[in-house]
Each structure stands twice: as structure tokens, then as C-alpha cells.
Amino acid sequence: MAELVLVEDDERMGKLLCFFLEGKGFRVHWEKNGPMGVSAIQTREPDLVILDLMLPGFDGMEVCRRVRPGYSGPILMLTASQADANEVGALNLGIDDYLTKPFRKQVLEARLRALLRRAAATPNKEPAPSDIVVGDLTMVVGRREVTLAGTRLNLTNAEYELLWFLARRPGQLITREEIYAALIGAQYQHFDRAVDMRISALRKKLDDTRAPYRFIKTVRGKGYLFGSTP
To answer: Which InterPro entries does the entry mention (predicted)?
Structure first.
């Protein structure tokens, strides 16, 4: 049974989520403000965290800043608007996924289970993967390390999995539908910008935020492809 910490100040939302998730087999510990959320995450070291953006005490982004140095599990953030989601995606806080309210409970469950699968996965699930070197970017697959010009990058699990998914198929068009299905574990919804937000956050880590992009190229209306541009 997976344990999760829910940090949500809205009484009705918190009760609904606890009832739903416990019914799906999760063991839920619920906190209602930022400081108590930090304490629960650091003390319990749960399998994953659901974190509301707007909280009493201090907000969800500050919670993430405080716990990330010692907590490596998945964090899913709940936001009230797409603008909030854009801000979250633009910051390198170690947030693995987000959902914009309102959302369907079944979508939340699918996202959580996808995060748990990724967290439990090992690089040896595929036969003897080789290291990947593209320009000055190197992926040491056996150690899940990524370096750029000799400097190690601090990628979240979600960012690493996205980079690996793209980099192992260099020069091939990979659609948003493929990325969404592989990394989120659900059918792609065309209004959902989760893939684009993840690409944007990964590009920032790769110091590749302006077109023409060096590593992850956009194929307008279709998807992305990976390859180095000198």
C-alpha cells in the first residue's frame, strides 16, 4: 500500500481526496498548511506527495523548496489556474507533475500511479542500455546521470525519464500522444499542456530555452524530436 502526504487547506477538497484515495488503496496523511506539510514529508518520507499551491503559512512552492534537498519521491502539485501551472513549470523546484483544478479524480489517480511506476523503475528494465552522448550532453544510463559540458544536471525523475524517452530515438518525431501515454500513463487530452510544460522545464535545465533549440526541437502541431544542433 503506497503512502502519500496530502497538503491541502480546503476542507471539502481534502475530505473528498482522502475518501477517494483511501478507497483506491492509498494510505493518506493529510496536512492543512505549509509548515505542517513540510514536517509530515520530512518525518514520514512518503511514497509520494500531493501539494496544493496556495496554502496557509507558506505556499506549495516554498514547501517544495524546503523538502527537496532531503526528499526524492514524486511531488504532484495542484494549481488553481493555467497561469499558476505555467509559473510552477517555469521554476526548477523538483515538481514531477501538476494538475489544474477542477480535475477528474480518475485523472489524479492515473497520474499518481504513473509517478509511482516511474519512481519504482530501474534503468535495467531494458536490456543493457548504452550511454548517450549528443554534443556536450552525456547521459550515463547505468547511474541515471546527465552532464552538460562536464557539469552534472540536477534532474527530477520525471525530467530524466522524459529526456531518456526522447534521446533513445534521436532524429525521430515523437508525438505528444506517445510522450503522454509513456510518461503519464493515460490517453492524451489535447487541452492538457503537461507535456509542453515538462519539455519547457527540461529545456531550462539543458540551458536550451531559445529557438532554434539545440537538443529538443519542436515539430509544430505534431510533437518533438531529439538531436544536437552545433
So the answer is: CheY-like_superfamily, OmpR/PhoB-type_DNA-bd, Sig_transdc_resp-reg_receiver, WalR-like, WH-like_DNA-bd_sf
